[in-house]
Each structure stands twice: as C-alpha cells, then as structure tokens.
Amino acid sequence: ATGADNDLHINQAVVFIEDAIQYRSINHRVDSKSLWLYRWYYSRICQWILGLTITVILALAFVETPSSLTVTSDVRYRHPPWDPPCGLTESIELLCFLVFVFDVSVKSYLIGWEEFCKTKWLMAYILTLVVSLTDWIVSLSFLCTETVRIRRILRPFFLLQNSSMMKKTLKSINSTLPEMASVVLLLAVHLSLFTMFAMLLFARTKDGQQDKEWVGYFRNLPDSLTSLLVLLTTANNPDVMIPAYSKNRAYSIFFILFTVLGNLFLMNLLTAIIYNQFRGYLLKSVQSSLFRRRVGIRAAFEVLCPLEETPANAQELCVSVGDLFQVLQKVEMDPRCKQAIIRSLKTSSCDRLSAAQFQKLFEELDKDAIKQHPPSPEYQSHFMQKLQFVFSHSYFGCLGNVVALANIISICVVLVMDADKRPSERDDFFLGAINCFFILYYLLETLLKILAMGFKRYWSYPSNRFDGLLTGILLILEISTFAVYGFPHPGWRPELMGLLSLWDMVRLVNMLIVFRFLRIIPNMKLMALVVTTLLDLVKNLRAFAGILVVVFYAFAITGIMLFKGAVVPMGNIRIFVPGHPLHQEAVLISKKKKCDFLAFLNHFQTIFIYHLCYLLSFNLICRWAKIYFIAWWLISSVIWVNLFVALLLENFIHKWDRHCHRESLSDIEYQRTVELMFRDVLEEPTEEELMERLHQHPHLHLCR
C-alpha cells in the first residue's frame, strides 16, 4: 500500500473507533475529504454551536409575544411586558434556521443518498425546516401580527433529532403504546360504566334541596365524565362525594368502589405493564447500541488489516501493534480508557493482534468508570500518626453528625419559642451565640480532616466538598454579620444596615446549617443507595428529561395559542346590569361570533366573568378546552410518570443487586452509564452478524 492509502486506512480506523465510542452508525462516506468533514462536524466546537443554536431557538418563546420577562405572573400586578419589535426575534430565528439547514446538508452529504432515503428522521428534519421557513415568511408578510405560529410548536423537534438516545427512547415509547392502549381502553370502559351508574344514582328529583350532587357534579354526561375523571386523579376527593354522603351514607360505596378499581388496580396495572414492556424495548435499544459499538471496532480492524503483510500460512488476518498505536494517538476518547489500552499493548508480547484480541482490547470501553481516591499523607512523627488515625476514623465523622443534629435541634427549639413573637420582640442573642459556636466547630472539623486526609484526598469525596463549601459560606456570613452588627450580646436587635437585616442574616445562616445536615446521607447505607439512584437518573437519563422538555414545550406553546387573553385582571372588570347598552351589544356579539371569544375578551375587558360564562357559552368553550387538559394529563401523568417510575425501579433494583453481591470499597467509586445498567444481560453479536453488516456498508468495500 502507498503512503496515501496508509493514511486513509489509519484515518478510517480512527473515525470507526470514535463512532464505536459514541455508539454512532458507521454508514457514512469514508474518503479522505468526507472523513475530515465528518470529524469536524462531530468536533466539540461544532456540536457546541449546534447545541447553543437549539437552546437559543427554544428560549425565544420567553421573549416573543406574550413575553415572560416580568417579575410576577399575576396579571393584576405586573407591568405590561416588553413587546419585541417585529423582525428582532425573527432575525435570530432565521440565523438558527440557517444553522439547521447547514446541519441537515452536512448530514445528508455524509451518509449519501441511499442512506438518506432510509433515514426518516432526516426527512422529517427537512420537512420541519420547510414548514418553519414558510411560516416565518408568512409571519413577516403579516408584520408579525398573526396569532398562530406553527413553527413555534415544531421547535422541540430540533432538540429531539439531535440526540440519538432521545430518539431511541421515543422509539421505545412508541413501541410500548399498544400495550398501554389496552389498559387505557380498560380505564375508559371503567370510567364510562361508572358515569352511567352515577347519572342513574344522582338523577334529578322533585326536591331541589336534595339535588346538590346532581347540580354540582352529575348534571349531564360531559360533567359526569369530567367529575369522575378528576376523581380518578383524586384532585376533587372527597368534595365530589360530600353532597351525596350528607344525604345517605350508602352512596359512599359507589365512590369507594370507583376509587379502588380505578386507582389501586387499573393505574397500578398500567405501571406494571409499562415497566415490563418499556424495559424490554429499552433493553433492545441498548442491545442495538452494543451492536453498533462492536461493528465500529470490527470495521477499524478490517481497514487496518491491509496495512500488515500477513504470512501465507496464516489462518486469520492480523493488525500490527504499531499501526494501532498510530490510531490511538489520533482517537479522541476518555484518557482512562486510552491509557488502559496502551498499557495492555505494552505489556503484551505479541506484535500482531487477531480480530478476537483486537475486540477484547477495546472491551475497556464497556467497563465501569472507576474513580480511585488519592492516598493519605504519610507522617513521620508518631504524634501526627495518632492524630491522623483519630481524625480520619469513622467515629470522628459520627461525632460531627451528632453535633450537626444538636445544632438542628437547638435551631428548632428557638424557632418554636419565637414563632409568635414580632421581629422587634425577638432576642437573637441565644441563636447568634449557638450558631457562632457550631460554625467554629465545623471549621475546626474541616481543618482536622484536611490535616488527617490531605487536601487532595479530602476534596476527592463529594460529601467533603459539600461539607467544606457550606462551612466556608457559613464562616463568611458569620464574619459579615459580626462586621456589620457586632458580636452577640443580650438584647441583640440592631436596626437594618446594608442589604440584609440581622434577622435575614441569621435566617440565611440557619437555612444553610439545616441544608448542611444532609452530610449524614453517605453514612446511612440504604439512604445513600436511594440518593445515588436519583443522582444517576439525573446524570445518565438526560434523554428522558429531554423528551419531557419537548412535551412541556409543545403543550405550553399550544396552550398560549389556545388560551391567549383568557385571563383578565380583576381590577379591569366592571359589572354591567342587564339592559345596559354595552350588555346588549355583548349579547348580540356572543350570539353571532362565539368563536371569537378570546379576541372579544381582549378588546373589551369590561364584562363581569359571570355574565361572560353565561352569555358567551363558556361551558361550550370549557368542554373543548377539556380535551387539551385531558391530553396533557394522559401524556404527562399517566404515561410519562409511569415511565419514570419504571426507570427508577430498574435503576434501583440494579443498584440493590450490586449492593447485595459486592462489598462497597471506601477508596473506589463506580460510575455507570445507562448502557452499563443492562451490560450483564446483553448478548454479544456473532462473527457472521458483524461481517454481514460490514459487507452491507454502502461506502466501504472490504478485501474479503
């Protein structure tokens, strides 16, 4: 092979290994120029610009009309929000669209036309951009006065398509929907049957005084369905049953049966089905990610094989260790993994690697990330060694926890004693004195731990960083308090000086002390297990949070367009009695133009809400609005909360199994990703599957 061919094969191997690290598909162009463009596109600066563009276009909703740039959301008290001039946000939006057009163009070129036709996400990407740009042109042609902007609802798509894990999660959710639909249908049948029973039980009678249940909750079919649907969420429990229960205690049986069947059985059955099905689909998604990684590593091996002259009697192809060293120097990967692979190569006695050896070498990528704490300092003095033993012992940490608990108890006692006192009647001497004592102890404890463990080892523990930072903040606040208000003494109630009063300073110190009490969590194993589970969800399951942002954003924009102007400041409302000319005009407009309720409300802002509800058929509008809120409840509460519970259970069970089967080591921390959660149950792809996928590559032509 020539020198140019050697460089090409090295660069191909580098890109394939980086694809494997990031679980990316290798079905892209592999010529020299395309490889350079590919690496540039996936560089940190390029991906940072793309992420910033997505953040900017999503954040425009806070600035666009109606703007959210107000201190309070209460329409009675807030000042008129800033209304950006036409063309300002549209110019920023156009710049974002240009970045997205460049993004989709580069992606389309790199994968080629054949792969582009197979990629539905890219086709949807182009369609979204076409619709958004068309709507942008329409918006400018109307001088930004139109009320409906379709492109605002489509903005979350840009966030969705940029994350492979979010797309996999969405695909898993989509595959789970048929199983969820069966339970939701059963839930609808349950709701419908009990609605019929309710309308029969609470029908209108001759005695109007006994019809409170009918009037309030079961007047007609839509109201009955709504009342029981809200009861399913327990939001109106027990209000919905009070009128009937006041009339006859036996009516409570109806509501008890509805709640038990709906909440205890059907809703929990839905959670169980979602957990079972979604875990299976997520497992399949993670399995496909593992397959992508194995294909990328094998592709790197195959392109490096022609660089090594294989003996004629060799049974299999080999890769030179020297060529692999060249590849590793160019690959962008975790330094820990790179050092481990280089260490394995140096300790190996072979100068050639087979496919199995090459694959095993990169299994370092699948291992837990291990963080080992630095060693403690070694003191020569016998006295210092004893001090180090005492202050690094776990009992010293337990003493600190007892002192923190005593501090919390003392704060609670003072707060209970001063709960009914006015600020002028309080004596802050006792609270200030005990806070000063405890903060000095916290400072001494921190310094002694640093002396015993060394600063590097002390700072390597998250609990110590949390403890040390809060202690430093408490010390600064205490010194500031003494500098402004002097030392505590009986009758310590000085007037306000500076930004915060003495009471505000003391309250801030007390809140930080209460927050500092969370330091006990690492010392309680089961509590620490729960907290680490939650932290792992925050760190590793960002894809689910991203989809949640997409759902919130889409519903928020839809709600703004549907209910814009529906809330009127109470101070601007006047009561008009029947017969007033404006009242008659309102009746005439309401009969002719019920659909323009929001515009009518924005224009007049003068009719009392009771008359609006009656005259403008507000019940009809509310019924249509119920569809929006029911859809929101189904997606956010029923589906998404159960998905989150399923993932929380999966993560907790996984950590619990590891906690039971492996002793925790004090100097080692294991950091796992969502792919590693399922590592023990994943299946390795076979040799035939890997080679079949490589031979299907549209741009890579192997020698064998």
UniProtKB/TrEMBL annotation:
Localization per record: Late endosome membrane; Lysosome membrane
Any one GO MF annotation of this record: intracellularly phosphatidylinositol-3,5-bisphosphate-gated monatomic cation channel activity
GO cellular component: late endosome membrane; lysosomal membrane; monoatomic ion channel complex
TM stretches of this protein: 45-63, 122-143, 180-203, 251-275, 394-417, 429-448, 468-487, 499-521, 541-563, 597-621, 627-649
Keywords for the protein's UniProt record, in alphabetical order: Calcium, Calcium channel, Calcium transport, Endosome, Glycoprotein, Ion channel, Ion transport, Lysosome, Membrane, Repeat, Transmembrane, Transmembrane helix, Transport, Voltage-gated channel
One Pfam entry name: Ion_trans
Chief location bin: membrane
Membrane topology note: Multi-pass membrane protein
Ribosomal protein is among the record's keywords: no
Recorded catalytic activity of this chain's protein: Na(+)(in) = Na(+)(out); Ca(2+)(in) = Ca(2+)(out)
Family label: Belongs to the calcium channel alpha-1 subunit (TC 1.A.1.11) family. Two pore calcium channel subfamily.
Name of the protein: Two pore channel protein 2
Protein's organism: Nothoprocta pentlandii
